Amino acid sequence: MLQLKLRTPEETMAFAKRVASFLVPGTVLTLSGDLGAGKTIFTKGLAKGLGIQEMVNSPTFTIIKEYRSGRLPLFHMDVYRITDEEDIGIEDYYEENGVTVIEWAENIPSWLPDNYLQIKINRAGENARELVLMAQGEEAGRLCREIEKNEDTCN
């Protein structure tokens, strides 16, 4: 587990941009936090780090947005309105050799893969956020250790 405190949305984006440098095909990240906590801000930074050129915004109403202009494709999902009983084909994206980011993944635990990095974003002030990274599985553990090893360069 890794905990970080970031003071501004720009710091959150910069951290996510650095995280992108450690991502490999098939990486799954889950993001949780209250509405407005910064899940989409984090994803925007991740997209920048992957070299994605398109405008990244919340997939709240479309559920899934695909971005393919970067070094790896990014599949950004918001499953806030989805339940564990609904099959939206999410597991198909795990096979796409890209990066899958799932907001509100706690709503669909049975659809999550064995390996993913869970990122909880908590408010720690008006603009400050605390990020808690927890690995689920061996590959996610490797990713978390790599991020932690380089944490000082991420701030």
UniProtKB/TrEMBL annotation:
It is found in: Cytoplasm. Keywords: ATP-binding, Cytoplasm, Magnesium, Metal-binding, Nucleotide-binding, tRNA processing. InterPro entries: P-loop_NTPase, T6A_TsaE. The keyword tRNA processing applies. Coiled coil: none annotated. Belongs to the TsaE family. This is tRNA threonylcarbamoyladenosine biosynthesis protein TsaE. The lineage of its organism: Bacteria, Bacillati, Bacillota, Bacilli, Bacillales.
